[in-house]
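User: DUF721 domain-containing protein. Structure?
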Amino acid sequence: MSYPRKGAKQISELTNGLIDPVLARRAGINTALLGSWSEIAGEDFADCTRPEKIAWARGGNETGGFRPGVLTIACEGARALFLTHAQGELIQRINSFFGFAAVHQIRIVQKPVSQATRRSRTPPPLKGEAARKLEGMMEGIENDKLRQAIQRLGTAVMGKRGNQR
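Assistant: Predicted structure:
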């Protein structure tokens, strides 16, 4: 087991120290909640939900104590209905994560959560010397599928700016 050097810190600690105050000011959440969201939401909702912000109540209650906030969660499409039915359990999980009654209500906003996968553009065919060079490299390949795959790869690599000469 290796021990960290005195004074050495992990990059995640440094970035969390920088990002947490900004997230707390703008959205009322921290990186720990975002990082642990898949465990908190569970396998049913981890892929289709994302915490957006926590709206903390201004001031305290009548006794001057803390008042729980409202957590806004982005949810995709029809899964929002299922999330509505599971709100009670999710609030309990969130509060147990924080260690106190931080959230008393969930507000669900329907919007896309997962990053849309961008389709890669087909590169333009090679011209001139680059096309002849690629054909020469593929000369001994007999398998058609392998030949097509290598041609696509070669076109993409050799077709980048500056490489097509």
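Residues 145 and 158 are 20 Å apart (CA to CA). The mean pLDDT is 78.
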